[in-house]
Amino acid sequence: MEIESVRVESSVWVGKKRFRALLSGWYFSWTELDKKNREKKTISVPIGEVVAVAEGRVEIQPQKKAEDTDRDFTLFYVKRRSSGGRIWTLGRTQFCCPSRDLRDQWVAQLKTALKTHCSSRPHRLLVFINPYGGKKRGKEIYLSLVAPLFELAGISSHVVVTERANQARDHILKKDLTGFDGVICVGGDGMFSELLHGVIGRTQQEAGISEHDPTVMLQPCDLHIGIIPAGSTDCVCFATVGVNDPVTSALHIVIGDSQPLDVCSVHHQSTLVRYSVSLVGYGFYGDVLAESERHRWMGPLRYDYSGCLVYLCNRSYRGIVQYLPADPQISSPRDSTRCLSGCRVCSESTERLFPHSDSCSSLYSRQLSQYSIESEGEWISVEGRFRCVSLTCISSSCPRSPKGLSPSAHLADGTGDLILVRDTNPLGFLTYLHRHTTTQDQFDLPFVEVHRVKAVRFSLPPDGDYDDEEREQSISEVLEDPEKLCESDIEFSKDGSQQYLAERQKEQEMKDERKKREFFCGPCCSKPPAVSVWNCDGEILPYTEISCRFKYF
Ligand SMILES: CCCCCCCCCCCCC/C=C/[C@@H](O)[C@H](COP(=O)(O)O)NC(=O)CCCCCCCCCCCCCCC
Ligand SMILES: Nc1ncnc2c1ncn2[C@@H]1O[C@H](COP(=O)(O)OP(=O)(O)O)[C@@H](O)[C@H]1O
Ligand SMILES: [Ca+2]
């Protein structure tokens, strides 16, 4: 056995076959040898993908030692299964060395290599499990698939099974987090959002920064967030990892992978309402969410069921959308790029926005200042009647739509995509929805437009019969009882003047005209509402008029 600083070599046996094992720089490989010492196939594992090395013949589940000798050691590593290598499993190979001494040296050298090359791996994690997310299998998924991998990799974890909504967020905001390298959510996008709010909020609290001030520069966050998918849509996991698979996600966490992510901050006037990473949607997606809350017992299917109901209600809503376009020279939502870890557009954006930053550091936020947003171009205004207005920081791909709401959106370029679907006939809208599930371009339709943007504002047309206070109040009622969205027409009178009455009559005539064109109106919407609600990563927002900014994290 030769031992240099980065090169270790010896012959080993795997089963009955003889191999030459080599640890060289960043790789551990073993090459099969035939009887005449001729090389056959080689298996090579980057040290960065080694999960653990243990003496003896070790099994992971149940963690027991099979019959072994003092010449054996076992290597656990990331093995790519399928889907273009996106699904990962735990690979395990048991090696038998010529002597106990050599075995000890191999184990020691591999452990040293792990320590040297893998300094970004977590040692201690705080895990939050939502036992009611998705199919209610969060606990089981964690205990049977994830915890054994963490244990094997020497990661200690403190587990909190939540008993109420926002418990995880409050825990992160208030409790002592010393010693934790990251927080893990076992749940869906809603649960991820809780952790995100906790992590961003905590960091700003400690830095004495007000998140409500839209012009403030946010403090970078040190704590990483890991996601084990156990929810209904799980699009943050799907769009970043490429698959919704708890073992794959656990392995990404174990080897210390990290991916910066854009975040959209949603303000109402000068109050921060929420942050979003996937969907901020008004109209169809808002209505689907409001409807789906009544059918939570159905689990993930509630979205499909509610989607059908809302589709049949055939609604559209008036609105004014203002947006600040991103630089079209850099990327476009109509190009055919697909953003993955290491994406060129994202790394160039980091460099352009923050020339002296370290793009590989952990989850950190760096908000573009108000000044730079305002000085970077003209706001464009679009007014009309929309089936839906959707904003997404990332592609928002999920198993329901593997290419997502905006297939070429970037994970971390400081921009989002604004999708405007104008009012159209039911068949047109169905075509739009259906194209999310096929290879056909969902933006190549005359009533759809998509823009890559830095910021967006949404307001209701001033000539409507809206009263701010009453409108927000009516949304609060919808939040308490989503059925209200279907029952009541959210409209309010302002005064009794002649002009008002004339406008009211005109509006009524337009409505009657629209009604004649309506193809179907289910029992849930005999009186279509004038205002929808915003769906922000699966939460209904309490305001209609909002402004959104995309931030690079
Ligand atoms: C005809 C087939 C149409 C398929 C249309 C698929 C569109 C899929 C777009 C997916 C965007 C996902 C954005 C993610 C949002 C999540 O953050 C958020 C929270 O997730 P969580 O519950 O895991 O916490 N999820 C959601 O808000 C759910 C939105 C899901 C919308 C699905 C709508 C299905 C529509 C089916 C319409 C069928 C019409 C058929 C008429 C006969
Ligand atoms: N123990 C709990 N009881 C009730 N709600 C919870 C609990 N833990 C988390 N939540 C909330 O449930 C919502 C949905 O959770 P999520 O994990 O995203 O599941 P799903 O994908 O099925 O919507 C989140 O907004 C989260 O705040
Ligand atoms: Ca983006």
UniProtKB/TrEMBL annotation:
SMART domains: DAGKc. GO terms for cellular component: membrane. InterPro entries: ATP-NAD_kinase_N (IPR017438), CERK_C (IPR045363), CERK_PH (IPR057465), Diacylglycerol_kinase_cat_dom (IPR001206), Lipid_Phosphate_FormReg (IPR050187), NAD/diacylglycerol_kinase_sf (IPR016064). Residues 120-270 form the DAGKc domain. Gene3D superfamilies: 2.60.200.40, Probable inorganic polyphosphate/atp-NAD kinase, domain 1. GO terms for molecular function: ceramide kinase activity. SUPFAM superfamilies: NAD kinase/diacylglycerol kinase-like. One of its GO terms (biological process) is ceramide metabolic process. Pfam families: CERK_C, DAGK_cat, PH_CERK. This is DAGKc domain-containing protein. It comes from Pygocentrus nattereri.
